[in-house]
Amino acid sequence: MTKPPAPIARMTVITLGVADMRRSIAFYEALGFTRKARASGDAIAFFDTGASVLALFPWDQLAQDATLPDHPRPQAFRGSTLAWNCRSEDEVDAVLAFAVDCGGSLLKPARKTDYGGYSGYFADPDGHAWDVVVAPGIEVGDDRRVHLDD
Which terms are listed as keywords in the entry (predicted)? Predict the structure, then answer.
């Protein structure tokens, strides 16, 4: 019997657990992400990110759905970051300032990296870390999507 082909790997949605849905929805709308599928009200929020979807869901309900404990909620590094790739160092600086103006907090001011890039970090209202970066080998096209070298 022939083995069926493996599924094609893809990431379609990143879901963040949040403490206050309204606050988090307002933050991500202020950053400029377009909210979609609004019929769910404040139960869950979906944002178009260009090539995938960012979803917000109440922290305790997300933990319950994944059958994981919802406490203690980590205040430290969680082992993952989201990224906002930019076209220039000036854009990195502007995005970091904008995120803070929208209610985020600056984790690390932008600086040159040891790999030849330029990067800084902000956190959303729930502490989810975002890397704002210009990185060699990662081009941000006119379509604002990331294009990787082979």
Answer: Lyase
